[in-house]
Amino acid sequence: MRAECRQASTLLHPDAGHVLSFDREGRLYTFYDDGILYKRALDSSLHWRRRENGGPRERGVLSREEARKVYQKVQHFVERGVRELDPDCSERFRREVLPWTPERLLAEKERFDAVYQPIAILPPDQYFSVVVQATEGCTWNKCTFCSFYQGRPFRAKTPEQLKEHALAVREFLGKQLLLRKSVFLGDGNALALSRSRLLPIFEVVREVFPGYPIYSFVDLYTGERHDPADWGELRQLGLKRVYVGMETGLDELLAFLNKPGSAAELTEFVHELKTAGVAVGLIVMVGVGGREYAERHAEATIDALAQMPLDDGDLVYLSPFVEHPESQYARDRQKAGLHPMNSEEVEAELQRLALQIRALGTRAARYDIREFIY
Ligand code: SF4
Hints:
By secondary structure, the chain is of the alpha/beta class. The protein has helices at residues 64-84, 87-97, 102-106, 108-115, 159-173, 195-208, 228-236, 251-256, 263-275, 290-306, 328-336, 343-359; strands at 2-5, 9-15, 18-23, 28-33, 36-40, 46-51, 57-61, 130-133, 135-136, 155-156, 183-186, 214-217, 239-247, 279-286, 315-320, 363-366. The chain has a seven-stranded antiparallel β-sheet with strand order 1-2-3-4-5-6-7, with helices on one face. It has a seven-stranded parallel β-sheet with strand order 8-11-12-13-14-15-16. It is globular. Iron/sulfur cluster binds at residues 138, 140-143, 146, 148-149, 188, 219, 245, 259.
């Protein structure tokens, strides 16, 4: 039995097959259990992942009862740690970790729900951010493939509501803030608000989370269009990078997805952002449009990216497309006679695109929305 008492986390290594990590509040963070990796989300849902014998990666989310059993197992390891570790480390476990019984961990769901509306998605490099929901929902909400904010009308918090929310977030995270290094302004399109509404939002964030760089999603066709001077002002206030759902550089396919805009407009928008010193993260869906669109989708996307002033501070995320059977996209695809790519085809396409994007001098990374956790 071994432990590491770090400044921002505590680790327990009971044996070669198990590793547990905890935040400085003492709440479980991750648990490696003989080939299965569990990650606890802030609402105490437990996400698992494993890969057996080099096969495909499997993943899922446990039911509350299943999670309770895993938390009981964690508790046994912690009790052993308190008994067997040297006094310095065992004291930290006794004080911080031991009070988190399975019941208390599961009750974090109620605390989470009091602070947050459901958090639908984040870019992968922001899973460790502090989400501040300045707005709720998405300003557009009509892309045929997207179910992130369905049934949730777009609304913006007033500065007073936002301050109350941000303080509640800070209180809820407690010392887990030591693990989180940025603020992500949610939900779908917070930066679509006018400059006069955004400035107080940035002020609140800077007051409650001083020194944290700020990240957010944005699109180029709904809400207020900011000019480069506005973007420069937001950058001065801490805005570091914005993430845009590009999806594809092929305008015909974008229209099929009922997403407004065009590759030319996006290119111009990226120029404006970069001129203002704001970095971009562009998200491309690999496999959308099926086999029939694959070649033209890839070609047009690389052509569009090549027109943008991207550098190594920017990111292109390649996201394997996940079709929801109940979505409008699924109905439209069948009607159009498009054939979905299988997972091997999508992975091969993803690798091919990643190489082409890196050859343009920018970073490309995989973005699997099924692995999102906050
Ligand atoms: S703009 Fe983004 S969040 Fe909104 S509906 Fe489209 S894909 Fe979904």
